Amino acid sequence: MMRSGRTDRPIWVSHWPGLLAVLLLVVLVFGTLVAVILRADGGRGLGPSDWAAIRFTLWQAALSAGVSVVLAIPVARALARRSFPGRRLLVTLLGAPFILPIIVAVLGLIAVFGRNGIISAALGVMGGEPISIYGYHGVILAHVFFNLPLATRLILQGWLSIPAERFRLAASLGMGPRDIARTLERPMLREVIPGAFLVIFLICLTSFAVALALGGGPRATTVELAIYEAFKFDFDLGRAALLALIQFAMGAGAALIAFRVAIPGDMGAGLDRAVQRWDDTRAQRVMDVVAVTLASLFLLLPLTMVIVDGAPGLLTLPASVFQAAARSLMVAFGSALLTLALALPIAALVVQRGAWLVEGLGYLTIAASPLVVGTGLFLILFPFVKPSDLALPVTAVVNAAMSLPFTLRALVPALRQIEKDYGRLADGLGLHGLTRVRLLWLPRLRRPLGFALGLAAALSMGDLGVIAMFAAPDGVTLPLQLYRLMGAYRMDDAAAAAVLLLGLSLCLFWIFDRGGRVNADD
Amino acid sequence: MLTIENARVDMGDFTLSADLHVNRGERVAVLGPSGAGKSTLLAMIAGFQPLSDGVIRWQGTVMPNDPADRPISMVFQDNNLFPHLTVAQNVGLGLRPDLRLTAEDTSRVGAALARVGLGGKEGRKPAQLSGGQIARVALARVLLRDRPLLLLDEPFGALGPALRAEMLELVGELAAETKATFLMVSHNPEDARLMSDEVILVEGGTAHAPVPTPEIFANPPDALRDYLGG
């Protein structure tokens, strides 16, 4: 009998690989933290610039989350109550920023909102001053770009969770739009919004690549960026370690708050229908059209600009870019394989031992920022090997750990269902251990595995984090190479490299995801 | 002989106790209102449901913990076949759970499939089969596993009446060929009348000791009468 998510049955597959994988993660997070604590230089305390970094990290995360959520409400409302051609595509696109390399999006935002971007050009025609994207507003703009889609999906889920019968009832009672908002929609929003806000706050709290590319200076440096700068420019390990400790404390604090708020899941199931409503007015129609149009433009224009600017230069890219791309592919495949090696045993453990493990690991990886783990690994490895020799493996390991929560969220429900449907049959026939993995789990997990591996590979392909700390000048990955081209103002090459990176990331996701679907037996 | 000695399972508010034995070679129907614990009784015997108390023996020996080591073949209500494996592989699991089949194993699989009327269907996937054919594949595997105790948990509930009668007849034949004892959960008292020697009535948290089928239908206890609606 299956009750409360776990079973009383004897063990089908050994716990040891799962426990080992969990142990590895705990060591990766807390072992590096210990290394950081031992090295942290508390003597001088926090300087003014450190306090500025802490303040900026907190308020930019709060503001980014607030703006994303507020803007997402009208978009989600429009998607919830309108069926229109392209709606499905738009909802799918709202899931895309997840696998979109941050640095590519930043380049696209520069092409739209930068000094030489189309908005500045339009202002110039009208006699206005060009605008700048660098600084705190650029950081927040980029965060909204990435998180508006997530917020929209989460809130849309809330809207679609209101049973259609309630809207029918409202219509039969003659309720107008205001009554419906009061009785149905606002209570739903009160439920959904705190969770959505918190998720985005947490994401923005550990933002590194955006701050690296668009922020910096006294007014727009996040703690993560400060760690990187202390490390890379000042080589002040004590200060980097102290900042890493602060980052961990902030993440852990936020994760503790998150523990008390219901965090909505977003696996994108069932968003492809709109609810029929009877309270339509002309004003609402106009609002919805405006919301959907503006949101689509905001999301699609930067990417279109990247492609338009970059596609022509693809063939004339310097060889170093292609070498970087090859390195990135290696990291992505390595990271995907490692994710699988960690996630499958952990999923097996979770299905047999209860779900709290998934939650726990999820929060663990939220509290642990990649840069903190990176700093710790550097401190541990520094005496023994040249860190740049290990830049790529370390990047793959950290990426795999960071994509684990998403992977588990895809694998665990699927594995639970497999065991529910076929567990007893397999038990009765004696499918134990690796035989069970080979003959039952792997064949039936193909779809979620393909999806999860695609996600892990794409996330790793586009990652610009730990690698920036470790890489030797001749050992960079494609996102880092792209960042360097931007830093050298070689914008044409940068745009072309961005198209390459975007294409490779999407391809990786598509290949794995597709591989899981082709010829899958249901 | 199957002996259930003072066995009990506790599942929250639900408990089921059983203290009974079934002689070798008997054909037993398990009847009772839905939710009474018919499937739980089979799960206890098969080793899927750990006992809170008591013991279950076969031929005087306590059953091992691992369901696969018990002298049992089981046919479930559904999900009897792995959809990603071929018919031959699904049957082959009855010989070797790791599916490393020898040439001799493969020919035995073919023979078992021929016996249940599915010769030549080795390469099909379950999705390409009808409900009746799927049940036959499951029975071909039972044949190869050749265990002395066969447990059937409403195996043909989804089939139409004619097909169900046909499958029950096949079960009867196979059980006779392998000299297996069988316990079959059914919703349908007619099934019990047709093919069982004895009936175990499950109701009120107890699995009662088996009673000869003609006797129990001639003089049904209150619980069965309520259930039959007589």
UniProtKB/TrEMBL annotation, chain A:
Residues in ABC transmembrane type-1 domain copies: 54-258, 325-512
Location of the protein in the cell: Cell inner membrane; Cell membrane
InterPro entries registered for this protein in UniProt: MetI-like, MetI-like_sf
Gene3D superfamilies, sorted: MetI-like
UniProtKB keywords: Cell inner membrane, Cell membrane, Membrane, Transmembrane, Transmembrane helix, Transport
Topology of this chain in the membrane: Multi-pass membrane protein
Family: Belongs to the binding-protein-dependent transport system permease family.
Name of the protein in question: Thiamine/thiamine pyrophosphate ABC transporter permease ThiP
Lineage: Bacteria, Pseudomonadati, Pseudomonadota, Alphaproteobacteria, Rhodobacterales
Gene that encodes the chain: thiP
Automatic annotation (TrEMBL), chain B:
GO molecular function per UniProt: ATP binding
Top-rank taxon: Bacteria
ABC transporter domain sequence ranges: 2-229
Keyword vocabulary terms for this entry: ATP-binding, Cell inner membrane, Cell membrane, Membrane, Nucleotide-binding, Translocase, Transport
InterPro entries according to UniProt: AAA+_ATPase (IPR003593), ABC_SmlMolc_Importer (IPR050093), ABC_transporter-like_ATP-bd (IPR003439), ABC_transporter-like_CS (IPR017871), P-loop_NTPase (IPR027417)
Matches recorded under PANTHER family: SPERMIDINE/PUTRESCINE IMPORT ATP-BINDING PROTEIN POTA (PTHR42781), THIAMINE IMPORT ATP-BINDING PROTEIN THIQ (PTHR42781:SF1)
Protein name from the UniProt record: Thiamine import ATP-binding protein ThiQ
Organism ancestry: Bacteria, Pseudomonadati, Pseudomonadota, Alphaproteobacteria, Rhodobacterales
Gene: thiQ
